[in-house]
Design a protein that fits this description.
CATH class of chain A: Alpha Beta
Shape of chain A: globular
CATH superfamily of the largest domain in chain B: HUPs
Largest sheet of chain A: 9 strands, mixed
CATH topology of the largest domain in chain B: Rossmann fold
Number of domains of chain A: 1
Bound molecules: flavin-adenine dinucleotide, adenosine monophosphate
Low-confidence stretches of chain B: 31-37
Helix content of chain B: 25-40%
Oligomer: heterodimer
CATH superfamily of chain A: HUPs
Strand content of chain A: 25-35%
CATH architecture of chain A: 3-Layer(aba) Sandwich
Number of domains of chain B: 2
Structural class of chain B: alpha/beta
CATH topology of chain A: Rossmann fold
Radius of gyration of chain A: 23 Å
CATH architecture of the largest domain in chain B: 3-Layer(aba) Sandwich
Number of helices of chain B: 9
Mean pLDDT of chain A: 92
Strand content of chain B: 15-25%
Number of helices of chain A: 6
Chain lengths: 260, 373
């Protein structure tokens, strides 16, 4: 019985700064981390394994450097790790990514439950999970913050706009995990040692039953046309002075703007 | 990737194209194997999914009709609203008054509550039959759940959480602009060879058009075969106890770490009340436990679009600023003249909020009293 967790290595966006002189993204020395949402997804899977047995398999698609986040996952307690890495996977958008992940997960069948993070902090799309479920023809529940697994089904609570839904689905299924679900465990020293000894399975396109037209850039319907830095178009008027002067100025301004 | 403004092509290259755009001498090009032209011409019209809750239209649907109208006018095509639900009386007319030329209704008991299997089946079937060029959905929890499922079934592209939409005149492609990397950069995405072009659109960014009761349009019912479409079963539904409704607020007074604790927020609440507005916060007060997460504005909080936003003791990180782009007037009160919030504000007051805000409250009350006399 397999619990699969899809994890992604992302740059730590809290560290990303714009160089105010050159207006460029400062990426030097920016650490890569496991997508924080995926830590919660992994924690959820580890808890279910401890409760129901089976094994936790983590899967990532990325360059060979993405092995780092697989090692982190092994150190937290995952049983096995699969790296999908092939130059042909490059440039994949969410559709091509989910297609490739689906092909790998088919090879790992039979599968009980698939976990994704609710979203990845680099692109914040929250699309890969539901798209993956669609490729696999499985039900999905997105944005889960509580879940129970019974023999053949899963019950999960998902947060919608102004309500919570308690939703049930048959297994196998896919869930995307919200950060409020749990507190991820920290890797133990023993876990780190074990992680370093565990071999990582690496699959290229050759190892998967895939259509080369559906992977990587070729399989991606979307294209990035332009990247730019956000501009805040406001003509700021700044005043310094004592509190009396400043408050007078603002009250007068707000009155002129008809906001009082 | 771009490091210090220099393009480095290494194993981490995802062919994202960032380097092509940033190169000042046009030395880099990205060789994309152009897929031969397909039947994209066959697809026309701009569609918006009109999300409903308890058989009422959600505000985001009207915003989508606003931007959809602009796009349809540029393309000289129809703007079409899609309604899925169990009781839809009166909603299609409302959508027409807000800009739709045509509304498709699918009414079925299975569509009473949002359920991703049934909704995906209904929307995909309609798209396959009618072949729209553009399909927009709100970037709400349900829209972001439905859109990827539909896009994958149609095997087309989907751009998440857009804050800007336009038509590229030469090609007719939809230019879909969205923040990435926590709002640090913006990316414009196209879907050149696949139709429909699908996007979710962040609420509170696009403007709805005022209702025009004189507008006319076509209302069509689509005969959807109800069947075993559901993938999940809804067991129960429970309202979240929302304490505030920041999305609808007209005036917001927001506090950050500079408010220094619950008492400081209480002071800002007083200013908000005086102005007839609502209190909000940056992430810092939430992390400090001074207030509930419902009040947070920004990337991981709410996107707001008030007429007036007064930021007090907020430094103005990019994650906060992405939440207030839609505000008409931004006022910043901060004692650090170098705080980035000043670059995103219309009016900046460099000073201590604990000195300025009490004076503001007194002076505004005085004016209000004079008016009443
Ligand atoms: C993935 C991610 C998502 C995030 N999402 C959000 C989000 O949705 N919303 C959000 O807000 N943040 C978000 N953040 C956090 C964000 O990066 C900042 O940490 C946060 O916005 C800082 O809040 P602040 O401006 O209140 O505090 P600070 O940055 O500490 O700024 C406090 C400011 O108050 C001023 N000040 C202090 N005392 C006074 C006084 N007496 N009078 C006047 N001014 C005073 C100081 O000069 C300073 O500029 C996110 C971060 C990450 C990593
Ligand atoms: N390249 C990838 N490899 C493995 N899992 C991924 C990958 N990209 C996205 N995911 C999974 O999909 C979730 C949502 O990602 P996104 O749609 O990019 O916001 C992530 O939290 C991961 O669980």
């Amino acid at each position: 019985m397999r619990w699969i967790v899809c994890i992604k290595q992302v740059p730590d966006t809290t560290e990303i700064r714009i160089d105010s002189r050159t207006n460029n993204l400062v990426r030097e020395g920016i650490a890569s981390i496991m997508n924080p949402y995926d830590c919660h997804a992994l924690e959820a899977a580890l808890q279910l394994r401890d409760q129901h047995g089976g094994q936790v398999t983590v899967v990532t698609m990325g360059p060979s450097q993405a092995e780092e986040c697989l090692r982190d996952a092994l150190a937290m307690g995952a049983d096995e790790a699969v790296l999908l890495s092939d130059p042909a996977f490059r440039g994949a958008d969410t559709l091509a990514t989910s297609y490739t992940l689906a092909a790998a997960i088919r090879r790992l069948a039979p599968v009980q439950l698939i976990f994704c993070g609710k979203q990845a902090i680099d692109g914040d799309t929250a699309q890969v999970g539901p798209e993956l479920a669609e490729w696999l023809g499985l039900p999905h529940i997105a944005g889960v913050e509580y879940l129970v697994v019974k023999a053949n089904n899963i019950t999960a609570r998902r947060e919608a706009e102004s309500e919570y839904y308690l939703v049930e689905a048959n297994l196998p299924a896919l869930v995307t995990i919200s950060r409020t679900m749990n507190e991820p465990r920290l890797p133990s020293v023993w876990g780190r040692l074990r992680a370093n000894r565990t071999p990582i399975t690496v699959w290229t396109g050759e190892d998967l039953d895939i259509d080369p037209n559906r992977i990587g850039l070729a399989g991606s319907p979307t294209r990035v046309k332009r990247i730019f830095y956000p501009q805040h178009q406001r003509q700021t008027q700044i005043r310094q002075g004592n509190a009396e002067q400043l408050s007078n100025w603002l009250v007068k301004t707000l009155a002129e703007e008809r906001l009082l | 990737m771009i490091i210090e403004g220099m393009a480095i092509v290494n194993e981490g290259c995802t062919a994202c194209g960032a380097c092509v755009d940033l190169c000042p001498v046009e030395a880099i090009s990205l060789d994309l194997d152009e897929i031969p032209t397909d039947e994209t011409d066959e697809y026309c019209d701009v569609w918006v999914w009109l999300e409903t809750r308890d058989n009422r239209l959600e505000g985001v649907g009207l915003e989508l009709l606003g931007i959809g109208r602009e796009l349809a006018d540029i393309k000289q095509e129809k703007l079409v609203g899609i309604l899925l639900g169990s009781k839809l009386e009166g909603l299609a007319e409302k959508a027409i008054s807000h800009g739709a030329d045509r509304v498709w209704c699918i009414t079925d008991p299975a569509l009473e509550h949002y359920e991703n299997g049934a909704y995906t089946a209904a929307l995909t079937e309609l798209i396959n039959q009618e072949k729209p060029a553009i399909v927009l959905l709100g970037a709400t929890p349900d829209g972001r759940d439905l859109a990827p499922r539909v896009a994958a079934r149609l095997q087309t592209g989907l751009t998440a959480d857009c804050t800007g939409l336009a038509i590229e005149l030469e090609t007719g492609n939809l230019l879909q602009t969205r923040p990435a990397f926590g709002g640090n950069i913006m990316a414009t995405i196209i879907t050149p060879h696949h139709r429909p072009q699908m996007a979710t659109v962040r609420p509170q960014i696009m403007k709805a058009r005022p209702a025009d009761a004189a507008r006319t349009g076509e209302i069509l019912d689509y005969p959807f075969e109800s069947g075993a479409w559901a993938l999940t079963r809804i067991l129960s539904q429970e309202d979240t106890q929302k304490q505030v409704n920041l999305e609808q607020a007209d005036i917001i007074v927001a506090g950050g770490r500079g408010a220094d604790g619950p008492e400081g927020l209480q002071l800002l609440q007083e200013l908000a009340t005086t102005l007839g507005g609502t209190l909000a916060v940056s992430r810092a007060p939430v992390e400090e436990g001074w207030i509930a997460p419902d009040y947070q504005v920004g990337q991981t909080g709410k996107t707001v679009a008030p007429r007036l936003y007064i930021a007090c003791g907020i430094s103005g990180t990019i994650q906060h600023l992405v939440g207030i782009q839609g505000a008409d007037i931004v006022v910043a009160i901060n004692r650090d003249p170098k705080a980035p919030i000043f670059q995103a504000a219309d009016y900046g007051l460099v000073g201590d909020l604990f000195e300025i805000v009490p004076l503001l409250i007194t002076k505004i009350r005085k004016i209000q009293k004079q008016r009443h006399q």
